[in-house]
From TrEMBL:
UniProt-listed SMART domains: UAS, UBX
Record's protein name: FAS-associated factor 2
Organism: Fopius arisanus
Source species, domain of life: Eukaryota
Subcellular localization, as worded in the UniProt entry: Cytoplasm
Gene: faf2-b
One GO MF term attached to the UniProt entry: ubiquitin binding
Amino acid sequence: MADNALGALNSEQTEKVLQFQDLTGIEDLSICRDVLQRHNWNLEVAVQEQLNLYEGRPSMYAQDSRARPPAVVDDTNSRIYFSPAGSSASGGGFSSFVFSMCYNLVTSILHILFAIFRTNVRPVSSDPVEDVVRFIGSFEERYGTNHPVFYQGSYSQALSDAKQELRFLLVYLHEDDVQSVDQWCRIALTDTELIRFINTYTLLWACNIKSGEGYKVAEALKAGTYPFLALIVLKDNRMTIVGRLEGTPSVSELILRLKTIIDNNEMNLIQARHERAERSANQSLRLQQDQAYEESLRADQEKDRKREEEKRAKEEQEARKREEINALEIEIQRIQREKELTIQKIPVEPEVGHPNSCHLQIKLGGRTIIRRFLMSDTVEDVYHWIFSQPDSPVNFEITTSYPKRILYPTMEMISLFKAGLTHREVLHVNDLDD
């Protein structure tokens, strides 16, 4: 499958596909190839787009190119117009003010007329990001690589990042056909001091108004004269235009104007940072409280579980004790019934002096019991009489005194005579359960 994905590519494209795979972690090489193809093999833009998707930010490539840019609040009451150096409009303060007012009025009217009568001249782009990348490439080809850092993404993404990072967004709209724009770019946007200022205090997004993306942004920001600059910042939780600068200012004028606007609106970012920090602290506190509650809840649940286990174990133990007691009572009752039945098996005791009688003294526990049996009675008859006694063991053996012989239990039930007993004998009862 990898061979199919890379088969039709040259070595440079194959290398970019493999680099894109390493940077994004996408395993499918065909997906890597398709993403790079959509971005005209611009590895940096493709990777940035993918990282935006991973971070949950909207995909700029997937956006409808016909959709209008995100709306921003216009907080500027007028435009700042810079006339070319040496023109009459730069003579005095009052004349410059009058010129600026007249210019604002004329450009507004022209903008409205242009909006009414333009038909089928609107540029259309399938990829806003590519419009921006194409402008950056064209700018570097014409003016060199010594310029402020251009944001490589769509206008919508630049707004989103500026809002997220709480930075000023400086929008620059470029017009190729104006000679003053070409001279201004060659002089101002390559100036080291201006580059340092823009890179330090702003996020710079730029595009050509002849592209679909640049055209849409020019319409949204109501650009009239080029070069056009707009400074946008988060204010009252909305991205707001706080300054417009049109024309060709000198480097010192531009830095002064930008610094003034930034200083006047820096408090908005400070307040936003404070509110964000406060929200973050509150969220962290709530998270800690939730964690503490969860831990307390788990501890209580663990206590309840142990208490329930102890209760269940105690109930089971009590149930076993009751079962043992019941079983013991049943066993006692069974033995009692068996003793009662055994009484019926005991032969009648012979009279005193009977010539065939055997006088037995039987040691049972701590007492001695005495009874006469006939010599013809069996050892089992003696066992039955002993077992019928209330204090007799359940399992026991019967032995003689000396020499000791086991009379019961035996394999064969024999008579006392055959067991070798005389007319007087002492027998012992041994509890087999001890």
